[in-house]
Amino acid sequence: MIKNVADIMNPDMNDEGQQQAALLASALPFLRRYAGDTIVVKYGGHAMGKDHLSSAFGRDIALLKLVGINPIVVHGGGPQISAMLGRLEIASRFVDGLRVTDQAAIDVIEMVLSGSVNKQVADLINRAGALAVGISGKDGGLLQAKRLLHRSRDASQEPVDLGFVGEPVKIDPRVLYSLLGSGLIPVIAPIGVGEKGETYNINADTAAGAIAGSVNASRLLMLTDVAGVLDETGKLIPELTAEEAQRRIADGSISGGMIPKVETCLAAVKAGASAAVILDGRVPHACLLELFTHKGSGTLIRAS
User: Fold this and answer.
1) Percent of the chain topping pLDDT 70
2) How confident is the model over 146-172, as pLDDT tens digits?
3) 247 labelled as ligand-binding?
4) Any binding-site annotation on 77?
5) Looking at the 3D structure of the chain, how many domains does it have?
């Protein structure tokens, strides 16, 4: 690793140092492209569960801030929630992969997401040299939500009451602008607030997409446990327009759990984000590979 500028300037430095200097120089056009821009990153999956990946993630987000980019992090925490509910002997029930959330469960979910997980993610970034502040979507009325109406995926299409599971109805980004303007990195737990003050658990992908649209982010980066959108042969599709993505959903070439992720990207782009990327969070430094290399790292979705 380069320790200081002298390492770069030293003509006798080793091959590794020369390679690192070349990498820094090659990143310049991308640094200029994104200077001053806002990047929203959805953090979850394996990237969040493996120590070496989480440490690399913290360093990458700190680096983005230090080079003049404004990152906003939205995190999940499903495994941590399940572990705490199990420890407290609160049974979990799922419908179509969605957790049914009663009052006892939402109290635990808020405690886990807004408490331990949120502060752990902020600490990863702080230890890497930047200043991150953990908040939830309830702070400053950031994520205003309503109860999610879910219809069963079986033939009946019956409405299912998921309890305190919500979806965003309005984003008030003023608290984000205040933090960014103070040189801070917002780290957001996807907990929303209802019209009557009720607490809602919001899918982290959905929350990140809504926030990215509200702040007109240059990029929404969605870290997942897959390489991106794959074609019929299993090969990564590097870029899709909104029309192409919708057509692939309609013809079934985008299916299963990839559909809601692509739909989140489409919603973010429609709401004001310049582009959204589905990328593999299992790859170290996936965010940097996407932003600072010509090839990128996942599937980019843009309006046209």
Assistant:
1) 94
2) 999 877 766 667 787 899 999 999 999
3) no
4) yes
5) 1
